């Protein structure tokens, strides 16, 4: 599910070893510099065929599972994306965001095989069934019980999105356990599925070594998936952790920084904020401003979470009119 | 009928090549090692994405067995970094990535004056990470190299043969929804691992 809390104001402590990181950064930055120096990033025009579906569910049937800000999240995304040149096809809020309506609206997003489509969701997510899922309006009953038949799993949502005629597909989820939607594409995420269970590393050597055991599977995937419809997914949290709302900003914590990224997330200064950059910005800000604790380095707690991003070779511009 | 002829053609070529190798006088068969590095041009494309340029660099080390006009086996271990690609009109680009590559190649040596020209081909496996992300992947590629070696002498090698070389590598990477072609120019230095003449 998704929780609400007021932001904590405790200072944050630096905690990551610097030596190896500096050497690695220098090495990696050379490649980036080579690319940055050589490839012009201006002069492109904003495409007119970028279509978005925005979903926010806070007022569920019954009274015990309501959230506070998902419709604010969806409305704020509507305002921002519209200003950024996206065409918002539909905003499904609360009672209109049923399982079937979501499927129908995704299906109606585009008929243009050159389009870019975006599906954004803010609301409850759960791993109660053993599979991380998002919970549409009719995924809960008036008596506050689960109706899991209407929950939407990663496989289902990805299939719906992949079936839409489009060239590029983007999925953004601000919900608990949403990291379950960022897996696959011939790659493995080495960030912990539950950040609070570990020692504040944003990636894990054990998971990295585990990935080596799947080396052959990844090679096989990458040999065979050419031409498949890929969905670039960005999630608020890992597949085993909750995400939160923030009473101080009256939005989802993740969505608040996702919106902020339009003005502050252009890391490489090329005038575009890509999904990669939005991921990096939200992760940095949540880590700095939310995942803070009096004994930060020693006592991770259940409030802590970090965004995740899917594999795949591509990146997309999310915002192309960054603020000053 | 035409297909049958093609099937016969392959073993005939193989027979000619192996016979040629068998009759060559076998001189010393030294192992050579080398270090190299250089810049790469590494554009990628997809099934519905046009070729998008990207640049990067790589460094690596190699060990190879030298037999007359042949290099029966060459192993290479390298590390590379490729920047994000250029944008396409839909505001899409390929992510930056870096990783480690293990390659195995075989090829031909052609004496050119006091130097030699090598043509190598083989396959490689890479463990890669998208730059700035915690997402890792692994992929296979086809690799090739055209290399010119020029002999040099270093006193500290105490009689071992050494060389400097320039390589034009080419690699075709099978990266899921992307195909990446990397080429460029690398320079390096190599030396014999044991004393002896390489012809």
Care to describe what's here?
The complex is a heterodimer of chains A (324) and B (199). With 324 residues, chain A is α/β, with parallel strands linked by helices. Chain A has helices spanning 19-38, 70-83, 99-107, 154-162, 205-213, 215-224, 253-264, 275-289; strands spanning 2-5, 50-56, 87-93, 116-122, 125-126, 133-134, 168-174, 187-189, 231-235, 243-246, 251-252, 273-274, 308-309, 314-319. Chain A is 30% helix and 19% strand. Chain B is mainly β. Helices cover 11% and strands 63% of the residues of chain B. Chain B has an eight-stranded antiparallel β-barrel with strand order 1-4-5-7-8-9-10-11. The longest helix of chain B is centred in the first third of the chain and has 22 residues, at 2-23. Chain B starts with a helix and ends in a 7-residue tail after the last strand. Strand 8 (187-189) of chain A pairs antiparallel with strand 9 (135-152) of chain B.
Shape of chain A: globular
Q: In total, how many beta strands of chain A?
A: 14
Mean pLDDT of chain A: 84
Instruction: Give the strand order, joined by hyphens, for the main sheet of chain B.
Output: 1-4-5-7-8-9-10-11
**Binned strand content of chain B:** over 45%
The residue-averaged pLDDT of chain B reads: 87
Uncertain segments of chain B are: 1-6, 21-27
CATH class of chain B: Mainly Beta
What is the architecture of chain A at the second tier of CATH? 3-Layer(aba) Sandwich
Q: Tally the helices of chain A: what do you get? A: 8
| Silhouette of chain B | elongated
Q: Measured on Cα atoms, how large is the radius of gyration of chain B?
A: 20 Å
Structural class of chain A: alpha/beta
Query: N- to C-terminal separation of chain A?
Result: 36 Å
How many β-strand stretches of chain B? 11
What is the CATH-assigned architecture of chain B?
Beta Barrel
Largest sheet of chain A: 6 strands, mixed
Strand content of chain A: 15-25%
């Amino acid at each position: 599910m998704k929780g609400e809390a007021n932001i904590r104001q405790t200072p944050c402590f630096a905690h990551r070893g610097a030596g190896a990181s500096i050497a690695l950064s220098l090495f990696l930055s050379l490649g980036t510099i080579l690319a940055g120096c050589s490839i012009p990033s201006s002069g492109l025009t904003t495409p007119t065929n970028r279509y978005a579906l925005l979903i926010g569910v806070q007022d569920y049937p019954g009274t015990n599972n309501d959230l506070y800000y998902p419709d604010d999240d969806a409305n704020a995304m509507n305002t921002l994306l519209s200003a950024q040149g996206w065409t918002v096809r539909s905003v499904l809020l609360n009672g209109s965001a049923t399982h079937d309506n979501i499927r129908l609206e995704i299906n109606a997003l585009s008929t243009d095989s050159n389009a870019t489509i975006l599906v954004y969701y803010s609301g409850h997510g759960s791993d109660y069934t053993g599979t991380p899922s998002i919970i549409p309006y009719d995924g809960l009953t008036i008596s506050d019980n689960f109706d899991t038949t209407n929950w939407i799993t990663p496989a289902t949502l990805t299939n719906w999105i992949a079936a839409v005629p489009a060239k590029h597909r983007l999925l953004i989820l601000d919900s608990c356990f949403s990291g379950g939607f960022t897996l696959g594409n011939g790659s493995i995420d080495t960030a912990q599925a539950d950040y609070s269970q570990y020692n504040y590393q944003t990636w894990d050597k054990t998971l990295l070594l585990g990935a080596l055991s799947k080396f052959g599977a990844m090679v096989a995937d990458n040999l065979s998936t050419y031409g498949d419809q890929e969905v670039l997914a960005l999630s608020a949290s890992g597949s085993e952790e909750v995400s939160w709302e923030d009473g101080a900003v009256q939005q989802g914590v993740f969505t608040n920084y996702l919106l902020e990224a339009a003005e502050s997330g252009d890391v490489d200064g090329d005038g575009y904020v890509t999904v990669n950059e939005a991921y990096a910005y939200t992760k940095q800000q949540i880590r700095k401003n939310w995942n803070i604790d009096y004994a930060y380095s020693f006592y991770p707690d259940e409030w802590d979470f970090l965004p995740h991003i899917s594999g795949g070779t591509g990146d997309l511009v999310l915002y192309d009119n960054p603020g000053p | 009928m035409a297909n049958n002829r093609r099937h016969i053609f392959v073993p005939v070529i193989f027979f000619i090549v192996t016979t040629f190798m068998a009759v060559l006088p076998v001189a010393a068969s030294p192992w050579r090692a080398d270090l190299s590095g250089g810049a790469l041009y590494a554009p990628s494309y997809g099934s519905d994405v046009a070729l998008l340029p990207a640049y990067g660099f790589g460094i690596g080390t190699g060990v190879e067995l030298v037999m007359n006009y042949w290099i029966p086996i060459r192993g290479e271990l390298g590390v590379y970094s490729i920047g994000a690609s250029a944008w396409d009109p839909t505001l899409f680009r390929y992510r930056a990535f870096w990783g480690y590559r293990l390659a195995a190649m075989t090829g031909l040596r052609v004496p050119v004056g006091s130097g030699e020209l090598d043509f190598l081909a083989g396959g490689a496996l890479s463990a890669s990470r998208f730059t700035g992300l915690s997402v890792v992947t692994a992929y296979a590629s086809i690799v090739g190299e055209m290399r010119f070696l020029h002999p040099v002498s270093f006193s500290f090698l105490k009689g071992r043969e050494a060389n400097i070389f320039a390589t034009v590598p080419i690699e075709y990477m099978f990266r899921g929804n992307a195909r990446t072609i990397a080429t460029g120019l690398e320079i390096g230095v190599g030396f014999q691992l044991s004393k002896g003449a390489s012809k």
